Structure formats: C-alpha cells, structure tokens
Amino acid sequence: MSSAATRPAGPDDLWSVDEHLEDILSTVHPLEPIELQLLDAQGCVLVDDVTVPVSLPPFDNSSMDGYAVRVADVAGAGEEFPAVLEVVGDVAAGAADPVRVGPGQAARIMTGAPLPPGAEAVVPVEWTDGGLGEGPVSGMRARSSAPEGAEGHVHVYRSAEARAHVRAKGSDVKAGDLALEAGTILGPPQIALLAAIGRGTVRVRPRPRVVVVSTGSELVQPGERLAGGQIYDSNSFALTAAARDAGAIAYRVGAVADDAETLRSTIEDQLIRADLLVTTGGVSVGAYDVVKEALAYAADADEAGSGVEFRRLAMQPGKPQGFGSIGPDHTPLLALPGNPVSSYVSFELFVRPAIRALRGLTDLHRPRARAVLKADGALRSPKGRRQFLRGTYAGGEVTPVGGAGSHLIAALAQADALIVVPEDMESVEPGSEVEVVLLG
Which of 79, 96, 178, 237 has the smallest C-beta neighbourhood within 10 Å, fewest atoms? Predict the structure, then answer.
C-alpha cells in the first residue's frame, strides 16, 4: 500500500478526488523498458533519444520519372526547337553503379534512383517525347515490353534549372540529427522513420496489460437471453475499450458472480497477465458487495504491503472507490463502482492517468478547458461533493446531456465532455463559466 492510504481518517471521513488520485499516482510507476521489434513497439513510449546514423535520403535522387540531363544541354529547349540528346542507358531505383552522363547525353531515370554522375537536373518524361519521336508523351513504356527505350535519342521540349526534380542527400534528415526524442509515442510515422534510418528494434516502455473484471450475479453477456432481474454487462466492455483507448493492452473477464471466493480465485488467475487490475461493482455498503469482502485490506494480508483499501470520495458520481495492490508482484488494483456512469467517470479520473503513468508518459490527464454553460436552468450539486456531469462541448460552450443519475448510459454515449462543479458550489447558473474535461 502507498503511504497516503494510511492517512488518519475516521469512518465518516471523505477523501477528496485529488487525494485519491495522488495516492494512486504515488504508487503506480512506469514499466521497465524492453527492446522490441518495430511493429511490436507501436503505441509504446520511446525510452532513449534516437539519432540518425545515415542521412535521408542517403544520396541525391530523382523525384520524377524522366531523364537525367546536364543543364547546358537543355538550355533554351522548346516545342519548336527541342534539345535532342543521346540516351546512354537506364538508372533504376536501387542502381549501385549508374551510367555517366556526358555532354549531349541523357539517362532515362526512375523516381528514387540515384542521380548519375555528370547529370545536374531531371526533366520529367512529360517534357519529352519518351524517345519515340512523336511529340510529348504522358509516360514511359515498361522496360520489359520496350527495352529499346534505354537507348537512341530523346527530344526534350523544356529547359531545366540546376537541381530541378532532384532530392538532395540529407534533405530530410542528416546523419547525427535527433530523429526522435525520449518520451515519444511511436505511431506509424515514427515507426516509418525508425525503419528508414535502419533501426530494426527500439527500446521502449511496453504497453501495460490491463485486466477488467466486472462483478454481479445479475449480469448477462450481450447476445444472451435476459431472465427476470437480469441486465446486460456493459461495464466490462466500456472499461476494456477505455483502457485500449488509453494505450493499454486490455483483457476483459466476463462477469463474476457475487461470491467472494470465486472473485478471489478469478483475480489470482488473472495476475499472470496483468500490470493493472480494474474491477467494477461490489464496492459500496450492500450485503452483496463482494469486492470489498474479497479484497479489503487486512493485517494478515498474504503479501507484506499488499491489500486494497476501500474509501468514500467527496465526488458524484463515484463516491465508493477502492485502491491498493495484490499478489507477489504488488500489482496495482483499482476497484470502481458498478453503476455505468460512475465506473466510466472513475476510469477517466483515476484509471486512465494510472495507465499513462505505467506507459512512462508525463502528460497523464485529459485536456481541460473553460466553457460557458448553456442550459435551460441552473445545475444543482450536492454540498461538499465535486460533481462531474456529462455534456457536449463546442465553440467554447458546454451543454448538459441527461441528468445526474449514475445509470444513464444513453446520455453518456452522447457526451464528449465532463462538466466539473467544484465542492464549494451548490448551483451553477446558465451563462456561467465552468471547467470541462474533454473526453474526445
């Protein structure tokens, strides 16, 4: 357990949102770096600066399909008086020993091919007759069907300046440049750059493995038939999707019945693949709140320093929460309420920052903004509670969606922001400025 979890508190004392979050983030630390193949590193956070070992491009090369020429040989060329040059061969991409271009000569060149010795510019094939002697062409014939195109003569109908259509060596990055900074999240463009400079592997912090367990004997999996008193398990799907959205590798465990031994056994089985465990449901004060029964911290905890403490927070929704660590590796566990909106809001406030901390990121939280409240009437909030209401945000304004009920999933699906009402406010009038947490 973290030190903050042992702060003096009576049974009726409430933790603030900030105290609970601070306790979590003081306990959760970045995962140890590992070396991964490039594609396996996608979505991971780079541990070390990466410098460029070889310039990109590594040689002067053509940006067009056309002809490599000397500038003086095409000076003044036009439709009426084209420059006529001897074609001395082809230069294809990957050519290691291209032909030399001398006075009055040209080499047919492909995009990406190295600029041959003696050449100073490239004229696009559309500026030439393609060696056919029949006026401007729109493209080259395939070498396999017309190998004679690499010899003979070509008519050039436009002049070219020095270095025209030439990509200079090092014009992208130069050897010794900083390619990527430590802390960079590796997406497709970053993977492309690493491959382009010859890196086959890279040292990163791995994406954390998050296991989501929902609890409740009333829960039925989507696609199955509901019986009396049953509801579909939506929380495990919502939280697993949210964990993936936060950059984790997330595993969903189907709903566990209200039995403490079954829950304990399930969680113990999941520890082998978890860097973080998230439960939903069973943390309040009811007789069937088995998460508390199964995981509550005790003096004789199996592992020294392990255990989960259950708390009440000065927030709405999401008052009941649990946090601690379990198992031989002291795997962090966050126990969230079972009401759908409560669990999702709790995830955004507490679990998402924990996942980003495990990833080694420093920017842990959703962006926030100030917005003008657009509503038909005042928003009410319980005294001493920090309330989070769903809303839609656009153009500096935020509009509430649905009510304050913690079961309103349809309203949550329409929201892209959380409206924050501070603990010291019991009413917020339309037109007031409020803080919003941006979800999308």
Answer: 96
Count Cα atoms within 13 angstroms, Cβ side, for 278: 33
Which residue type does 100 have? R
Among 270, 281, 267, 278, which residue's Cα sits nearest to residue 231? 281
| Chain-centre distance for alpha carbon 156 | 49
Tell me the sheet residues that pair with 389.
419
Is pTM beyond 0.70? Reply is yes
Q: What is the pLDDT of residues 185-227, one digit of tens each?
A: 999 999 999 999 999 999 999 999 999 999 888 888 888 888 8
Kindly state the tokens that stand for 156. Answer: 């050039």
Per DSSP, what are the bridge partners of residue 15?
Answer: 313
DSSP symbol at 177: S
Half-sphere exposure at residue 136, Cβ-oriented, CA atoms within 13 angstroms: 12
Find out whether 33 and 203 touch, Cβ atoms under 8 Å. yes
Question: In sequence order, what DSSP letters do the residues of 364-392 get, joined into one string?
Answer: -S--EEEEEE--SSPEE--TT-EEEEEEE
Rg (CA), the chain: 32
Structure token digits, residue 120: 């100073």
